[in-house]
Write a structure and sequence with these properties.
flat
Length: 329
């Protein structure tokens, strides 16, 4: 495999295709295929390939793109006409990742190109090779081969070229053309009127054939039993009520039912609530006091340890010096 790469001539030029499947780096043989490389670089600088799709994918063979129409029948070169093939003896379809011009026959090259997914010896001498996919970006090219395709090898969800970045341009004399888009109609121009027609086979409820803006149905507000029934026990006031209102209603209901002493029960409930609050506050104060006591005891122990440490250090020093003097004697 290394001998194959050694037989290839050195490249001079580089572009990066920013695709929906990831970046694809392409190195160019601008000396061996100058017209194809000039055409590819100039179209890239002009944004010709931006937002175009790869309209044809054949697994284990190739991925084709470069047609702004997405049909495989469009595209033109930067020269305004097809240019000739540039066949080089040292450039052959011996490995995957070779980038070549797609043509409709001999000397019929425009803007479409393809990238191989495997060796394709039968294409040698029939298509102009002008570049190769390099680095780990070859795996992004391989990812395209796994996409599902339909009739005529068209992918059901075609990958796209978002933009093209020219890293190394060997043609310093290229001046990108200004590709003008079709002018948009002015505000005062006559615009074609489009009638909205109903599909009578699916959504027909009458004999109308044309539909304008649908009329909004009158919103109907639902009526509750509080409003519909003439019952004094049902209130028509909104449901937003406070706790005091609820307690007053309960007391009134108990009085109406003959259960006296409602005020006493309310007072007892309030007193119970206040007792619970006082108990919770007392327990919190006790926990806080216990925490402070533990902290203070730890601080006292730390201060005592710091005070004892120098004395112990001095005693150890005296013992060490005494031992050294005894050894000298």
């Amino acid at each position: 495999m290394s001998s194959i790469y050694q037989n290839m001539p050195p490249t001079n030029g580089k572009v990066v295709l920013n695709t929906s499947c990831g970046d694809i780096e392409i190195e160019l043989w601008s000396k061996e295929a100058p017209m194809a490389c000039r055409n590819f670089i100039q179209l890239s600088l002009e944004g010709y390939y931006d937002n175009t799709m790869f309209h044809r994918i054949i697994p284990k063979f190739m991925v084709q793109g470069g047609d702004p129409t997405g049909t495989g029948q469009g595209g033109e070169s930067c020269f305004g006409q097809p240019f000739k093939d540039e066949i080089h003896s040292r450039l052959r379809f011996m490995i995957r990742g070779m980038v070549a011009m797609a043509n409709g026959g001999r000397d019929d090259n425009n803007s479409q190109f393809f990238m191989t997914l495997a060796p394709c010896d039968w294409l040698n001498g029939r298509h102009t090779i002008f570049g190769k996919v390099t680095g780990k970006t070859i795996y992004n090219l391989d990812a395209m081969s796994g996409l599902e395709t339909g009739p005529e090898d068209r992918p059901l969800y075609p990958p796209r070229i978002n933009s093209v970045e020219v890293i190394l341009n060997p043609f310093t004399d290229i001046v990108p053309r200004r590709l003008e888009a079709a002018p948009a109609p002015a505000d005062g121009a006559n615009r074609p009127t489009v009638k909205v027609c109903k599909n009578k086979a699916l959504l027909s409820f009458g004999d109308e054939a044309e539909a304008e803006e649908p009329q909004a149905e009158t919103a109907k507000r639902m009526v509750s039993a509080h409003e519909a029934l003439d019952d004094p026990r049902l209130s028509r006031l909104p449901a937003g009520r406070t706790e005091e209102d609820r307690r007053a209603d309960d007391a009134q209901a108990r009085r109406d039912a003959g259960g006296g002493g409602s005020s006493d029960s309310d007072d007892s409930r309030d007193s119970d609530d206040s007792d619970a609050v006082r108990k919770s506050k007392g327990s919190a104060a006790r926990r806080r006091a216990g925490f402070v006591a533990v902290k203070e005891s730890k601080l006292r122990l730390l201060e005592q340890a710091q005070a004892v440490a120098p004395q112990e250090e001095e005693e150890r020093d005296r013992a060490r010096r005494a031992a050294e003097i005894a050894q000298l004697k």
